[in-house]
Design brief:
A two-stranded antiparallel sheet has the order 1-2. It has 70 residues and is mainly alpha-helical. The protein contains three helices and two strands. It has one domain. The longest helix has 28 residues. Strand 1 and strand 2 form a beta hairpin.
């Protein structure tokens, strides 16, 4: 699933002046599954990919916050 997350996140949208990473959408995941097929249940796949994405965006925000305080 890490490989799937990597592929999906390469198409990520960024918004605003600071280029804030937008959350992945159900459509992003569906597009990936249409191209590569399903190896896991959809519920499990969505849960893992969205958890990885939440973690990535949380870490990104923390890095931005710490760079602004320096």
């Amino acid at each position: 699933m890490l490989e799937a997350y990597y592929v999906i996140s390469r198409g990520r949208q960024y918004v605003g002046m600071n280029g804030v990473p937008a959350p992945l959408s159900v459509r992003d995941l569906s597009d990936y599954l249409a191209a590569y097929g399903e190896r896991y249940s959809r519920e499990e796949f969505d849960a893992v990919i969205f958890a990885l994405d939440d973690d990535f965006r949380k870490r990104w925000a923390e890095q931005q916050e710490s760079s602004m305080t320096k």
